Structure prediction request, 544 residues.
Amino acid sequence: MALACLMAAVQLHSSQIEGRLLRSDPNSIPSSAALMLFARERGGALFGVHCAVCHGQLGQGDTERGIPDLTDDDWLYGMGSVSDIEQIVKYGIRSSNPKAWNLAIMPAYARARPSVRDSKIPALSPANIRDLAEFLIREQGRAGDTAAATRGAELFAAEGGCYDCHAADGRGDPAVGAPNLTDRITLYGDGSRESLSMSIAYGRHGVCPAWATRIGAAEIREVALFVYSLSHEPRRTETDRHAESD
Amino acid sequence: MPNPTEQRRTNVAGGSSRRSFVLMGAGALLGLLMAGYSLFTARGTSTMVVPPEDVALINQQPISRSDYLLQLQTLYGVDLRHATAAQRRQVLDDMIREELLVQRGKELDVASADPEVRAAMVNAVELEIAADAIAQQPTEAQLRVYYASHRARYASEGTMSLRDYVFPPSESRAAAEAAETPQFTTPTRALLERWHASASGKVADEEFYFAAKIHLGDRLFEAARDLADGRVSAPVSEADGIHILYMIKNKKPVPLNFAAARDQVLTDYRNEAIGHLRTGDEAFLRKRANILIAEDVR
Prediction:
């Protein structure tokens, strides 16, 4: 009887915290140490079950497989707020869910039809692809073939159509999930000419499943908060400071 | 007069029976409380309380809180903290209106009359099936097995650099002579003039196989594909004249190793899984459906 009461009390307490977690503005939750503690513990366990198979137990990703590093502050979709992360966990990326991030696909410029969605995107020649790779190398501040980079810059801004997603300055667009090409953070490969050329030649279109119909709303928020915590130091609140001084 | 021992026994029995009733009553009360709590909070049950993950229930259909927040962000570029009361109200009203109209649409069975609604529903169901397949992440071992059994699919695109010279249809002898001439690989303008030949201009310096095929046409591409570096093709008659190809560099498609092909392998694996699931679902739907077909169209 006592055990049943204790279990019921624990369940009730968890339900109450879950309720607070769900009713709170997701972006304000990180400032509540108690809610974060609760969410990180449960979210971490869920992450281990559902997400770690791709992202790794520590969320460190894998550039060989195009799995993003969740522990840095470089965000491909959105700006890395809790609500941005939650939308991805819930609806996924190219997941076939109608609410998923689904706008952009990196075309395969070495194929006869680079994009299955847009027949207007032209195929490029091998020399074009080499020039574009040189342009990206130059934009990242690395030494390379200057003449090829100049030709690549023209392609980037015109025929290749790269500017359309990656922006005219190559800094990407988080609204469509187009990466910043001017930094040295790579999603696929090691950033070498070969790996850049492979991405341009054969395209990229990573997928993240939608969990909206597979786990509950509270669990989705807990996973989002856990992922958020991977790249953010826990915020110290007044309560924390008092606890430390004691 | 009851003896004291019996009196004690009666008292003990009475106390024990009272405790039993109290415990039974407490148990029943606890059970009722738990059942009542579950009844009014469990997913899918009719409830008077809006669950914490939702902002409203419209005829028991939830409007998700995260969709509400997304809508606020999309329409006004603000999060909940910074949204004004008017913005919140507007977004909520819009979402309630949409839900009411969707529910009314179901009542009116608009899908039976509106082809766009039908197409959207078919698409949505197909996407839902695909989403199921996408959520099932294959293991690396499964992907490697798939790659091994479909290895021929995964190759780089070949490239070729070649020259294409065209001779007038009447100059078949000159074409045959030219093809045998060692200087053909770097013909001078004088030589070309003597043969009445010229560069066709069909191909650029270096092209992918698919581009060379488009530019040269099927027959010339077939003649070019197997030419080794530095070799000259036999004359090929086409509508615009007789062509001879000189292959500068022919880089044939190279099989991609698993790491290089993994992205495509995963896509193909998923597409196949989606295809299987769709076939299975359709078979199930047909099996459980009562389909009657008119005699004249059977």
The two ends of chain A are 37 Å apart (CA to CA). Chain A touches chain B through 54 residues (CB under 8 Å). Chain A has a mean pLDDT of 90. Residues 17 and 23 of chain A are 10 Å apart (CA to CA).
